[in-house]
Recover the amino acids of this structure.
């Protein structure tokens, strides 16, 4: 298919989850046997028990790729999203939340199955977030849910690594990448979590090499992916893939690894934007949003990284992953 003007700048595909964010103490994490800073998959009973125990919370539409889509939309990007919710009240609220942000959301809800997913995010006083995720309906996303017209219309299809667990979702990712590339579009993959990388290291590497054009990863995910000990080794390994990579490093900023046709890669260092850390939830999601929103405007890669840093800084300055400030003003758009 010949390339044509994209109707969407970004199409996200991921786990459609309602985020429940609450303050917690170190003692509470210990009491529940939670690994601080990690993401644990939980069943219905544990989800209900934790939800009842945390008390006051902030609830919003969530899921990693959905958060990226929301931030990108706030930066003026034209955005779509594919993800599975149930035909229940939280699922309807999730859909309305996206539509209110101007995000195209064509996925049909699941009828008669598990309820809409939720992520219980406990934030300790140091701003670190510990996630307990009940996946519910979102894991039923499969090839039939890949909206061909939406993928063909998007400049970049952005795939969330968290969704990589079910085989049906992996098949959906491959289908989406084939559609995107046939339409002359690009595919971005975010690795999402080092535990997720550990479960699917070989499959992720294969997908990066064969199906991806852009990769987003943080330092821990990169070290896990290549089973190396430092960021320089990870940089060399990413260089060998020949892909455009945005490697985030928390307060150290980010590193953009730019393939250079048989001559290794150019490495662009992007500083972090200082802020007071309240809740690190969604920092990587926001960075990807800023990067891709700038990329859609054809801005230089260093500027794409700066937009990512600004968006991430705003995200961690408050509870929740959705922006509370005007990001277009912050980036100077």
């Amino acid at each position: 298919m010949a390339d044509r003007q994209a109707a969407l700048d970004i199409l996200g595909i991921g786990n459609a989850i309602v985020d429940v964010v609450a303050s917690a103490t170190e003692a509470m994490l210990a009491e529940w046997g939670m690994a601080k800073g990690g993401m644990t998959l939980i069943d219905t009973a544990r989800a209900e028990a934790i939800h009842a125990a945390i008390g006051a919370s902030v609830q919003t539409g969530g899921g990693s790729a959905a958060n990226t889509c929301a931030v990108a939309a706030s930066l003026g990007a034209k955005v779509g999203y594919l993800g599975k919710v149930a035909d229940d009240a939280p699922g309807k609220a999730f859909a309305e939340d996206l539509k209110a942000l101007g995000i195209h959301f064509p996925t049909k809800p699941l009828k008669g199955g598990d309820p809409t997913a939720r992520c219980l995010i406990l934030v300790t006083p140091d701003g670190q977030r510990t996630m307990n995720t009940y996946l519910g309906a979102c894991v039923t996303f499969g090839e039939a849910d890949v909206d061909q017209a939406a993928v063909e219309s998007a400049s970049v299809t952005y795939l969330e690594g968290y969704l990589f667990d079910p085989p049906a979702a992996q098949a959906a990712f491959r289908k989406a990448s084939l559609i995107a590339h046939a339409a002359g579009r690009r595919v971005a993959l975010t690795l999402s979590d080092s535990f997720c990388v550990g479960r699917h290291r070989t499959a992720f590497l294969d997908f990066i090499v064969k199906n991806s054009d852009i990769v987003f990863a943080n330092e821990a995910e990169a070290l896990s992916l290549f089973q190396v000990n430092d960021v320089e080794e990870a940089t060399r390994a990413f260089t060998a893939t020949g892909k455009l990579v945005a490697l985030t490093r928390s307060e150290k900023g980010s590193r953009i690894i730019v393939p250079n046709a048989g001559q290794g890669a150019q490495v662009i260092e992007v500083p972090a934007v200082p802020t007071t850390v309240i809740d690190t939830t969604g920092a990587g999601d926001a960075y990807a949003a800023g990067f891709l929103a700038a990329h859609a405007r054809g801005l230089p890669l260093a500027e794409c990284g700066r937009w990512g840093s600004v968006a991430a800084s705003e995200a961690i300055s408050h509870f929740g992953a959705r922006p509370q400030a005007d990001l277009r003003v912050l980036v100077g758009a």
Summary: The radius of gyration is 18 Å. The longest strand covers residues 17-23. The chain has a mean pLDDT of 92. The chain has one domain: 8-331.
